[in-house]
Write a structure and sequence with these properties.
The chain has about 325 residues and is mainly alpha-helical. The chain is built from 9 helices and 3 strands, in the order H-H-H-H-H-H-H-H-E-E-H-E. It has a 3-stranded mixed sheet with strand order 1-2-3, covered by helices on one side.
Length: about 325
Amino acid sequence: MSDTRYDDGLSTWIHDHIFDEGSRAAERGTRLVMWITAAMMVVEIAAGWWFNSMALLADGWHMSSHALAIGLSAFAYSAARKYAKDTRFAFGTWKIEILAGYTSAVFLLGIAALMAFSSVERIFSPQPIHYREAIVIATIGLIVNIVCAFILGDAHHHGDHGHDHGHHPAHAEGEHHHHDLNLRSAYVHVIADAATSVLAIAALLGGWLYGWAWLDPVMGVVGAVLVAVWAKNLMADTGKVLLDREMDAPVVAEIREVVEDDVKSGETKLVDLHVWRVGRQAYSCALSIVTTDTDLTASQIRDRLAVHEEIVHSTVEIHHRRRASS
């Protein structure tokens, strides 16, 4: 009988570490976009070979890197779900998705570098362009990218509402960066490809109608710069999560407020605090408190922290000290 009572009490302290289950809608969306992108890649490579167009061949191989990166995003969702209950992951598997997003951003930087190199090379060594065929294929590629963007946008809408841990209204405006970074990486690849398609169509039309052959490589350089900027921003956002560099997040100030301002009895000071993200809108924290309030307990602090639903895991250490004599 005593064992049963002990187990019942212990169960209130035992919990799993699956703080973000991922988005099935995002996984389906990225997988579908991967197959569409791969199919378009095959079409462009085949068309380039058939029409003897180096531009189409180059764009087809360029698209292969996008297909690979988007496939990596889809794989990350699957891997995160597969290993969700693996106890070797101290705080769940959500960061597999972030790692995939960071890797995808590295792919984008590589694509930007190749685009810039090829464009500069063509400025100094112009190549004959099959304008009509290239424009047709580039237009089809743009349409495909627009469709893919809508697929990922729909996945983002359903995914965010389907797995939202909620957040306190006090910092609702600061939560915009908590969107699915893995899905965002796939979206950036699609948008980057769409942007380069638009630039390519404009350049091809200029060359075909007005003989501005130089416009094609110049637009290539412009596209490379755009892709590099998007890649840099994505690397910054995902790298920040991977390195746990989020002590400037609004939730940190809220934790300090809970510990120091909300405790009325006794002199209480937060002397050590670590906060890191374990899900899109889920944080874990470890904190140490020094207080003269002999009645203050870790459970009371956890109850106060529970007001902020994004704090899903907390470790509280309390050190009691004597009140200074007057």
